[in-house]
Amino acid sequence: MKYQSTRGHEMPQSFSEILLGGLAPDGGLFLPQRYPQVSSEELEAWRKLSYADLAFEILSRFCDDIPADDLRALTRKTYTPEVYCNARPGDNTADITPLRKLGDENGAPLYLLGLSNGPTLAFKDMAMQLLGNLFEYALARAGQELNILGATSGDTGSAAEYAMRGKRGIRVFMLSPHRKMSAFQTAQMFSLQDPNIFNIAVEGVFDDCQDIVKAVSNDHAFKARQKIGTVNSINWARVVAQVVYYFKGWLLATTGPGQKVSFCVPSGNFGNVCAGHIARMMGLPIDRLVVATNENDVLDEFFRTGVYRVRKAAETFHTSSPSMDISKASNFERFVFDLVDRDAGRLAQLFRDVDTKGGFDLNASGEFARIREFGFVSGRSTHGDRVATIRDLSSRYGVTIDTHTADGVKVAREHLSAGTPMVVLETALPAKFADTIREALGREPERPASFEGIEALPQRFEVMPADVELVKGFIARHTGL
Ligand SMILES: *Cc1c(COP(=O)(O)O)cnc(C)c1O
């Protein structure tokens, strides 16, 4: 299995070669040269597998340069009920991503797929926990080390820290705006006592943190000497790890071969639903892939009109489903590559248009007319929809969902088809978004037992002015490089 760039760069790479990297050398994204195919006999045989062994079966088709025994050990170490322990009472934690039936609506069984039972209560743990183990393994094999630098306003940073804590050969330097995160988020990150995790609380806002990360990364000599890397959402291993739970969700929602299932995905950078697209291209019987956005509706606009129009910072709203507040979708290029029949020249032109003209229109070329062949439909949701949906699910089914999942349920309900199971991906647990839960239900969200009282734990962090040189000095002192 070799990987190529969406923009045509020739020099096929192996999985291990692209594991630690980001963009391809020509600015494109890596994709396998072809998608491995899964037959319906294989799918049926997978019904009896644990999540870890299912992950092995799927991942081994994408990374044939890691010995099978090693890969199986990595998936078994990652996907355990102890790591994914925060499921709702009554859910089967042995499934890792338990499927919960809400009810039948318009003749369609409506389900939640619980992807948020990991250490940070959001679906990013599903991929990031594997990434931590894969990175540690690959760095040890190559005799290298890696210093991950990132900026966070809450969610991504904590998933990275919980994935990399205690990993040999890896340090994490995570910048966050001092006193701007919720008490819960702050406690989640700052209570980590692992010596390889460094929380830097910057006296400024999130944009200051991001500017510092950019400035450090643009100092190429410093970056190389300090072995600085990132773990952003375009990382291929993150995308492929997410493919696994579409298979798991399908297996849990069906009883036999060929049955179709639709998935609804609360979307931001298009990483999650891109994994669904790949599962469908591999032969998983997916009917619809429903893209749900919030008020930041770049993707909904594209799937309705064929026009992709990225937003400016001033047009990007801060919403109550903040992990979907994006102005452009960094993984979208991977899907567009397949939509234009893998024509790298055409793809490169389209994304040059994104940079120079702010977007592109696929109507005149006839490419947009093919969108239904790929199963995609979409919808958008607002704060009012989230609050109403959280209330409705609480009273109708006795289930409390978070704001992102509420966007998903709202949009899923607009695309139900009698007889076809609709699986909404639960991308976070409500404990993380207490303000909106209080607004909707007039009470605090349930908190998994492992999070009781975390605000009272001792915290380990460094407060620093928003100053690039000071941050560089801090990194150099702690890496000793
Ligand atoms: C990151 C995130 C999303 C968006 O996922 P993408 O892969 O960026 O589309 C949705 N919900 C939650 C809770 C998230 O953390």
From TrEMBL:
InterPro entries: Thr_synth_N (IPR029144), Thr_synth_N_sf (IPR037158), Thr_synthase-like (IPR004450), Threonine_Synthase (IPR051166), TrpB-like_PALP (IPR001926), TrpB-like_PALP_sf (IPR036052). The modification N6-(pyridoxal phosphate)lysine is found at residue 124. Belongs to the threonine synthase family. One of its GO terms (molecular function) is threonine synthase activity. The keyword Nucleotide-binding does not apply. It holds the Pfam family PALP. This is Threonine synthase. Its cofactor is pyridoxal 5'-phosphate. Keywords: Lyase, Pyridoxal phosphate. One of its GO terms (biological process) is threonine biosynthetic process. Gene3D superfamilies: 3.40.50.1100, Threonine synthase, N-terminal domain (3.90.1380.10). Residues 2-79 form the Threonine synthase N-terminal domain. Its EC number is 4.2.3.1. Residues 97-346 form the Tryptophan synthase beta chain-like PALP domain. It comes from Cupriavidus gilardii J11. It is an enzyme of class 4 (lyase).
